[in-house]
Amino acid sequence: MPEPRPERQTQNRVVALFTDASHPSGLGYRYLGNWQHREDNRPIEADILRQNLEARGYPAPHIKAALERLKAAADTTGTTLYEANLRTYQLLRYGIRVKTDLKENYQTIHLIDWDHPEANDFALAEEVTLKDASENSYERRPDLVLYLNGIAIAVIELKRSSVSVTDAVHQLITNQEEIFNKSFVIAQLG
Q1: pTM for this structure?
Q2: Contacts of 168 (CB under 8 A, 6+ apart)
Q3: Pairwise CA distance, residues 181 & 43, whole Å
Q4: What pLDDT sits at residue 188?
């Protein structure tokens, strides 16, 4: 039986698949870095989203209003994860109708450009440390987080080949518990 590969070696290969332009099957994601020690990691990286929306020509006041609506939809306070996820999904899929002046018409801000995928910012960060707000300071660190225009859409947890699939699935379920940053899971599609 072959020796199990170290998790880090596998992680490097997966990162290269997503980010290395010279990789034969490369996916063209932008590498955001190792966020293990970065403060305040969020499921919605507002600066990245704002930059993408600006690059696609949306005016700053509309972007600000859209970001406020998205953050409110993703907030799990007083609601279930399912309900917050549904609200967030609808905004990601259909856009956010905003207007900043009573005299103007509504404009739809599309957080994801479904018609022109190349206009989106696909990015990956490693070791994204998530901390809860409680005094217990629970912490989780997904191996990889995929971002679409600054919105976390997927978490990839890598395991050594000697770790069972059951253990890996159990960790992902545990990571979604409220004490382990339920709010980070909200922006993930599906």
Answers
A1: 0.82
A2: 157, 159
A3: 10
A4: 44
